Amino acid sequence: MTPDRYQKLCTTLNRRQPDLTLLADEVHKPHNLAAIVRTCDAVGIQTVHLCNPNIRERSLRGRSMGSSRWVDVEKHANTVEAAKTLKAKGFKIYAAHFTDQAKHYHELDYTIPCALLVGSEKRGVSPEAAEIADEHVIIPMQGMVQSFNVSVAAAIILMEAQRQRQAAGLYDQCRIPEELRPDIMFRWGYP
Amino acid sequence: MTPDRYQKLCTTLNRRQPDLTLLADEVHKPHNLAAIVRTCDAVGIQTVHLCNPNIRERSLRGRSMGSSRWVDVEKHANTVEAAKTLKAKGFKIYAAHFTDQAKHYHELDYTIPCALLVGSEKRGVSPEAAEIADEHVIIPMQGMVQSFNVSVAAAIILMEAQRQRQAAGLYDQCRIPEELRPDIMFRWGYP
Ligand SMILES: C[S@@+](CC[C@H](N)C(=O)[O-])C[C@H]1O[C@@H](n2cnc3c(N)ncnc32)[C@H](O)[C@@H]1O
Ligand SMILES: C[S@@+](CC[C@H](N)C(=O)[O-])C[C@H]1O[C@@H](n2cnc3c(N)ncnc32)[C@H](O)[C@@H]1O
């Protein structure tokens, strides 16, 4: 590995945000999953949760331009169980979901441990997953169409999370626990 | 048409931004084009420019969840010609393009007449199109992957444009010239 490459890996590791993640509730189109994983890498998410029994790893890998090499993809058969596990670890669940109690996406605090939950292409967030969420969040739209593409919606909200975390200095020092760093560096460096 | 529906069409028309547009430089995957057109509708763009000789209208229509019904899609065989035409009408061309002179996407002024130029999935913005642009713009990334999916990048920048335009009051009064309104309402109402 060249020194430049090693430096790039270190810089990226130093910006990872262990207390920010995304949960995809039965999002199933490979190009959407790929775009989501790619955005997760870009905002510093190290672990993403894909909840869907039928994800094909292969197609994900090709399409995400290699981003699933840099982001740990955890698969779950059940969204509610995955959300419960995250809640037990202290994460708030923010469901991107159109309801009366939904808040504007600028209003939420993304500097605390939180997981953005996005819904499937056709059906959106399931009622059970919406129920378990701590907050519902929407991106206001000015047009006729009712929703954004799911990978677009995820990116808009994650970029707001990044903006808040940048302002709070959360990208300025390494936040991955020291004992976990060598393992990630090893996997990144020697695939 | 129900009164509610008519009201929704009026509200949408009143928020359209005739001096904001997007130019896609040989973006060719139907799901990306569809997601882009859908985002354009959501931020109030009425006319979008797709530059590519080989776009298949049919696949676009199915995938954009009907958003090409609400947004006028102009097709061009040549990106540079399309950009020149917009420049002659007073638009600044902002190319989303990785160069040394590129500015952070928060730094540009999107309240003036402007067109966001995005590049193709593989090759990005062509050198000729980059050359004719007034500004180059980038979204900083914290990860290992070099670029966002094109529809994601377009949405991130267009949402910043929307934020600025909202702050400037540009969604508060109808900005489509009066003589053009009946035609749009007719096409929307009786497809
Ligand atoms: C295509 S949308 C699902 C649409 C579905 N028909 C519904 O009504 O929920 C896929 C997912 O993208 C996210 N999404 C899309 N547009 C959004 C918006 N304006 N605000 C918040 N989330 C949005 C939500 O998580 C949604 O479940
Ligand atoms: C997948 S990228 C093209 C990547 C291509 N290999 C390159 O180097 O230009 C497709 C388009 O998305 C836009 N894009 C993606 N990530 C961007 C970023 N971080 N900043 C600005 N534009 C971006 C650009 O318009 C780009 O041409």
Distance, first to last CA of chain A: 12 Å
State the fourth-level CATH superfamily of chain A: SPOUT methyltransferase, trefoil knot domain
* CATH topology-level name of chain A: Alpha/beta knot
Query: Within the largest sheet of chain A, what's the order of strands?
Result: 3-2-1-6-4-7-5
**Cα radius of gyration of chain A in angstroms:** 16 Å
Q: Name the hetero compounds present.
A: S-adenosylmethionine
Q: Could you name the ranges of chain A where pLDDT drops below 50 across 5 or more consecutive residues?
A: none
CATH class of chain A: Alpha Beta
How many β-strands of chain A, per DSSP? 7
Shape verdict of chain A: globular
Question: How helix-rich are the residues of chain A, as a percent range?
Answer: 40-55%
CATH architectural type of chain A: 3-Layer(aba) Sandwich
* Biggest sheet architecture of chain A: 7 strands, parallel
How many H/I helices of chain A?
7
Strand content of chain A: 15-25%
Mean pLDDT of chain A: 93
Order of H and E elements of chain A: HEHEHEHEEEHEHH
How many separate domains make up the residues of chain A? 1
Judged by helices, strands and strand pairing, the structural class of chain A is: alpha/beta
Largest interface, per-chain counts?
A-B, 39 and 39 residues
The multimeric state of the shown protein is homodimer
Short description:
Two copies of one chain form a homodimer. Chain A has helices at 3-15, 30-43, 57-63, 79-88, 127-132, 150-167, 181-189; strands spanning 20-25, 47-51, 72-76, 92-96, 103-104, 114-118, 135-138. With 191 residues, chain A is of the alpha/beta class.
